[in-house]
Amino acid sequence: MEFILVIVFMLGFLLLMWIHEDIERIYELEHVLKLTLTKKSFGPHSHTFRDVKDVVEIWEWLDYGLLPTIVKHKDPVTFSHS
User: Fold this and answer.
1) Is residue 43 classed exposed, middle or buried when 0-12, 13-18 and 19+ CB atoms within 10 A define those classes?
2) How far apart are CA 48 and CA 36, in angstroms?
3) Averaged over 6-17, what is the pLDDT?
4) What is residue 75's DSSP assignment?
5) Whole-angstrom Cα distance, residue 64 to residue 42?
6) pLDDT exceeds 70 at position 77
7) Cβ of 61: how many Cβ atoms within 10 Å?
8) What is the average pLDDT value for the chain, to the nearest integer?
């Protein structure tokens, strides 16, 4: 049993190292994330991440800028009251 775990961890480690060494893919991913998160407007005044000045605006950016970008719902959630 221990031998199987060692093999699984070794293969996982090798896979992560192989992905980590793919510099072009990592750069493209980081670049797209940076552009998406810093240029997306949020809040009532259409601020961007660069306009954040205080703690309240950080929470607004998290609620209206970051979370909707990362978590997208395909179907609206509806509740029925019986």
Assistant:
1) middle
2) 10
3) 93
4) S
5) 5
6) no
7) 20
8) 81
- Note the pLDDT tens digit of each residue in 27-61: 888 888 888 777 877 776 677 877 888 888 888 88
39 closest CA partner among 29, 30, 31, 50: 50
Whether the predicted pLDDT of 76 surpasses 70? no
For residue 65, count CB atoms less than 10 angstroms from its CB and return exposed for 0-12, middle for 13-18, buried for 19 or more. Answer: buried
Tokens of 66: 């970051």
Q: Show the tokens assigned to 63.
A: 């609620």
Please report the pLDDT score of residue 14 as a whole number: 92
Contact 35, 41 (CB under 8 A): no
Token pair of 62, please? Answer: 């998290």
* CA 33 to mean position of chain CA atoms: 8
